Protein: non-specific serine/threonine protein kinase
Amino acid sequence: MPSNKTNENMNTVVSSPISRIPKKTPITDDYEITKSVLGLGINGKVVECFSKTTREKFALKILNDNVKARREVELHWKASGCKHIVNVSDVYENKYNNSTCLLMVMECMEGGELFQRIQERTDGAFTEREAAQVMHEICIAVKYLHDNNIAHRDLKPENLLYSKKGTYGILKLTDFGFAKETFSNDTLQTPCYTPYYVAPEVLGPDRYDKSCDIWSLGVIMYILLCGFPPFYSNHGMAISPGMKKRIRMGQFTFPNPEWQNVSQDAKELIMGMLNIEPSKRLTILQVMSNRWIAQYTAVPQTPLHTNKMLKEGEEMWPEVQEEMTRSLATMRVDYDQVHIKSIENSSNPLLNKRRKKSMVNLPNQ
Structure:
């Protein structure tokens, strides 16, 4: 995992983009676009491209020009002044087959996704101190957004990427397809979410605010410390009525042996972030001021079960994530109106193990 300076400022920034006006010149004048697909965002695919002058590699996100895409580009561009947010280098407005497209050129993140990095490590167990450092870095990005009145609304490990492989990569947040400006409480209403990380108020129909990001942070921290989510469908579906009920009630536990040696400070911080009442939930400033985050270099180097559990969950995660990706690639707004294929008959060691433990007395529908 990366080893950053301990005195890293909460608002660490890099140089901001010079202009936020999309270029009308052909992108092919400046970049060589390949057919190599790097990933799929909410609103469009990401392909590899190279600068024709420097030969530097970039990631190109291709979006159909519409109000939602323009909002994504504008907010990502606005936020890319933060060290822990993927930087936007250029934006083009070009026409293809009589349709206008927005082409967003971003730094290429070659170090892989957060959980993938943890799962594939071969140098021993992931530790609580490393989890605290990761959370500190994510919080820097979220604080930058919230200070600029931006709610990301899709915080999850798949949107947290390392800039490089090895120990020198920087963890950065990406994909602003759900992001929206919010200048007061209760200004958001569209039920945008990814099931594992969704705050109870986002399940609708009431309005909500950027505190939904704090709930997602709490879920990410929970998984970092044990290797499985606090809320999931016992049948392996992306989301279910029972899972929604547990989210709305804030019904989760810290089961042993995975949580046996995790510090009480960490558990209390998670509980503060997973408060079902948005007004009582911690703010990003309160999270960053918490000693587990602010003094992460002093957190115990307790070995965690995270690596092992993520590997045991390999059988479940790809199937569920595939269903999510398929749904989200089309609209990814309201899961109540998207049919999710059940994989309840699949043999799944993680689900079976968890069913036998803390979830055994919880609703399983």
